[in-house]
Amino acid sequence: MTTEITDVEDAGTWRGNIEKIFIDIMVNEVNKGNMDSGTFRTNTWRRILLEVNSQGKRNFNLKQLKQKFNRLRAMHREFSDLLKHTGFGWDVETNTVHALEETWQNYIWAHPNAKRFRSKGCPNYNLLGLIFNPSIATGALHYSSTQDPPNTDDEDEMDDNLEHGGVHVDVDTEIPDDPPQPEMAGGVTTRSGKRVTDSLLERRGKKESRLSQMGDALKAWVEASKARTKTS
Predict the structure, then answer these.
(1) pLDDT digits (tens, 9 = 90+) for 74-126
(2) What is the residue range of 69's domain?
(3) For bias kind Basic and acidic residues, which ranges apply (predicted)?
(4) Residue 123 counted as domain residue
C-alpha cells in the first residue's frame, strides 16, 4: 500500500497561504545559517514547527513538515530541470513556462510530474531556490551586511541575472544575449553625452515592476541582512 501523497491531498492539507508561511519561515532560518548539508538541525525543525502552527493556526506534527519539505524539494528540482530543457521559455515575472504544444506533450510523456507546471508554473520558485540551492540563488541576490545597498547599476545586473537565468538554474547553462535594440527617434542625451533610446527608457521604466515581482526573494535577504547587522 502506497503512502505517497497526491497533489490534491497536499493542496487540501496545505490550503490557503500556509505553504507560503512555511516557505517564508524556512527562508528566514536559511538566512540565519541554520541549514546544514541541505536540511535543518533538530532544534531548528522544532522552531519551524512552532512558527508554522502559530502563524497558520494549524496543528501539524514534525513528520508532516518534513514530508512537505521533501515534496517542495522534489518540485523545485523538477521545475529547474524543466527550465534547462530546450524549447521552454520562462516568464520570470509570473514563474510560468511557455512552450509549443508538441514540446509540452513530449516532455510530459517522459516526465509525468511536470504536467502540474503547465498551468501554474512553480509557485514561490525563487524562494525555494534560496532553500534548496542557496549557493547559486544567493549568488544573484547576496550582498554582505557590510556592503552598501545595491545601486542602479547593481540592480540592473541583478535584473538581468534573474530575467535571463533565474536565481538558481544551473549556472553553466548558456544564456543568450538580448537581441540588439534598434535606435529610435526621440532618445535623450545624458550628461556624459551618451544617447539613451526610447526602448532603453521603457526598459528602465519597467524596472520597478520587475523588481516587485522578484521582491519576495530579495525582501527575505534584506530582512536577514538587517538582523545580522543588529546582532553584529
Answers:
(1) 999 999 999 999 999 988 887 789 999 999 999 999 999 999 999 889 989 99
(2) 7-172+194-231
(3) 195-210
(4) yes
